[in-house]
Amino acid sequence: MKTSLTGHAYLAAGTTEQIPEVLALLEKQGVQTRGNPDVYVRTYTHFGVEEARELRERAGARAMTGARRAFVIATPGMTTEAQNALLKTLEEPPADAMFFIIVPSPNGLLATIRSRVERLVFSGEKGVAEGLVDAKTFLAALPERRIDMLKPLLEKDEDDKRDMSAILAFLSSLEQMVAKNSPREGLHAIYRARKYVTDKGALVKPLLEQVALLMPQI
User: Fold this and answer.
1) Residue ranges making up the domain that contains 141
2) Residue 41: strand pairing partners
3) Are the CB atoms for 43 and 150 separated by under 8 Å?
4) What is the CATH number of the domain that holds 63?
5) Which residues of 194-211 are buried (b: 16+ CB within 10 A; e: fewer)?
6) Phi, psi (rounded to 5 degrees) for 70
7) Angle at which helices 80-91 and 49-60 cross, to 10°
8) Inter-residue contact 9 to 91 (CB < 8 Å)
9) DSSP conformation class of 93
10) What is d(CA 52, CA 164) in angstroms, rounded to the nearest whole number?
């Protein structure tokens, strides 16, 4: 992980478990994180345009302590609308503001977002979905078997209670495997699932099952 902070916006792969690492990094930079009203830490199960606007408004406010402000956000993903709403804030942030965005699959964000941030790599960084569904085994299986393999990701009956971090990391792993080993056949299903799976009201099970049925066998 970086030992110094010279930028104003950072992107990292991870979940809420990585928040303490970010706070520890801020402490090393002399930013008091405990009881500091200028250190804003939030976790989301859904990050849409309303959440982006709230973050943008908070970023536009003045620091309460006169020191630098830090916004640490952990979320399974961001809607396209939310990312577009944050573009200007990340490109031209208030001088005293730093942003830390933690998502399971940074490559799933818009290129325009990724071009405006620096990457943070946590020590021992691993795939969030490790141990749930192995992408290589999944792609080698027949469609019927793949449907069965999705059960660890779909074990909770309600979509809004499922582990979106694990699901998005799994989709990212599939994309990397397919891009390396076969033509682009089936990638559309991954892009579609990743785009809609975090939307409110999204039907997660059908989206993942479509991926299972359409991906080429490798």
Assistant:
1) 135-214
2) 72
3) no
4) 3.40.50.300
5) beebbbeebebeebbbeb
6) -130, 135
7) 20
8) no
9) -
10) 19
DSSP 22: H
C-alpha span between 51 and 192 (Å, rounded): 22
Dig out the tokens for 27 from the structure: 């402490």
46 falls within a domain: yes
- Cβ atoms within 10 Å of 177's Cβ, excluding its own: 18
Alpha-carbon distance of 204 to 193, in angstroms, equals: 8
127 part of a folded domain: no
Q: 71: which 2 tokens?
A: 């916004």
Shared domain for 13 and 106, answered yes or no, is yes
- The one-digit pLDDT tens for each residue of the chain (218 residues) are 555 676 789 999 888 889 999 999 999 888 889 989 999 999 998 899 999 999 999 988 888 876 788 999 999 888 889 999 999 888 888 778 899 999 987 877 888 898 888 888 776 554 444 447 888 899 999 988 999 999 888 877 665 667 777 787 788 778 777 777 665 666 788 888 877 877 777 788 899 999 999 888 88
What φ, ψ does residue 40 adopt, rounded to 5°? -100, 110
d(CA 38, CA 64): 6
Count up the domains in the chain and report the number. 2
What's at 81, amino acid-wise? E
Residue 128 within a domain: no
- The verdict on 97 and 144 lying in the same domain is no
